[in-house]
Amino acid sequence: MGSKAERYKSGVMPYAQMGYWNPDYVPKDTDIIAVFRITPQDGVDPIEAAAAVAGESSTATWTVVWTDRLTACENYRAKAYRVDPVPGAEGQYFSYIAYDIDLFEEGSIANLTASIIGNVFGFKPLKALRLEDMRIPVAYLKTFQGPATGIVVERERLDKFGRPLLGATTKPKLGLSSKNYGRVVYEALKGGLDFVKDDENINSQPFMHWRDRYLYCMEAVNKAAAATGEVKGHYLNVTAATMEDMYERAEFAKQLGSVIVMIDLVIGYTAIQSMAKWARRNDMILHLHRAGHGTYTRQKTHGVSFRVIAKWMRMAGVDHIHAGTVVGKLEGDPNVIGGIYSICRDAHTKQNLEQGVFFDQDWASLKKLMPVASGGIHAGQMHQLITYLGEDVVLQFGGGTIGHPQGIQAGATANRVALEVMIKARNEGRDIWNEGPQILAEAARWCSPLRAALDTWKDVTFNYQSTDTADFVPTVTTA
Amino acid sequence: MRITQGTFSFLPELSDADIKAQLGYALGQGWAIGVEYTDDPHPRNFYWEMWGNPMFDLRDAAGAMTEVTACRKAHPQAYIRVNAFDATRGFETTRLSFIVNRPANEPGFHLKRTETGGRQIQYTIEPYATQAPEGQRYP
Prior knowledge:
The complex is a heterodimer. By secondary structure, chain A is an alpha/beta fold.
């Protein structure tokens, strides 16, 4: 490019020429890096499209402005520095963009996302845009609290080690009175679950107001703890219309002795961060239900990948996050889910393109986020769940507990026995992936609830093609 | 009742061979075995008595089993558990914990409800056994 006078002459200029494309740029350790999947409109050069994304997600507007010259604008411009065609997807490109750390306010997911996914997703020269992954520098991570409790402390508080935790969501989702609702909680906990959960849309409706629900649920939790000698919990959903309401509900839950409260993703990033700080201050585990995410995470060409949402939520400070089951009723390619679980649980996540993880990510001692697997899973899949998801996970069997033919306690017992027998076998060195059904059948000989569960659900699978898959290998489907 | 703390409490009592297999697994992961016992099974009694320090330098399941056996012999009516500690950075915590001995009779817990205002109840869980002094709880 020519002189500065020429660069800042009024008018419209391609973003690439305005300085938002720099193939020689080497990202600094303190830069935030984003990789977007861009699908330019026909005839739009991918490099210009990448530069436009960099521009519109940092300093640029559609025309040249002289006021850039009042700033150290080279510093504030995001730089697209690499554009690769997406393997096997014509017309799509992965574009890597680096952002200087000073573009973002400390400890604010709202501010980070206002830039990265602010205006740019509606940008006309693009047919579609998807934020695939981000590399968050240690310097910026250290400005976030991270999970209020984390996996290690959660387990120590609950005194539960060496196996996934077990949960269930009370069903039916809507309509139960508080007293009947608490009955489900008690039966499931006494039968062997560690947690029961409010569903995402249980707040304070005409059929069941929140204070009444909390009182009955805590009776159920304490009664089940006395019946088993174990610490038990129920995720009391504190999601509400305003922060004031949520704080009021959370305070009441704490006053009643609950070990855990929950929120929904739809409350927004700022409310989530506020609740995470509240949870840290009040020794509370904070469960996040990812209500709403499927509207923008599922389709491969447009939106935000859930692995990015998981990263933001670990920074924002929740302790539990629904992160996929692989084998259940909801979307979940094994590779993509594996990548998301790494993001939640690793101290240092390694780049793994086969799992859709584009960057090494040092988590800078932010606590670990417990993934939750929920939706259409049952005891007969225990060997698959443990193989895919490992040990630090909450397995939630809602229908698979409450729908048991012998009742809720029997349903819970079936799940707990299936879990313990499978962990024992794995630790003994048995090949649970192949021997799993046999291991369960052996246990079903002495455990009639497990036998009934296996008989009821043995043929239930949800074998559909995943839509959200990694791009770098042929994808596998589950059996 | 049956107290279901620990990783394998829903299974039939573990045999010595079962226990040894789990000890072997834990040692294979590089974890240190500790044996603990108590006659206060409250779910928030975090500090059971240690049967010696965790065995950081012992890498042999048979040796760890000897300690389990010795603790059982000394405290046949106690709850005894095996813990496996992982000192790896990012964990630095217990990774496996299971009960290997329990009293013949487990009376369980009393749930004490103290009614306060506004329909609220303050709950206290109390092991029936701990109404007797330590050492005299499981005759």
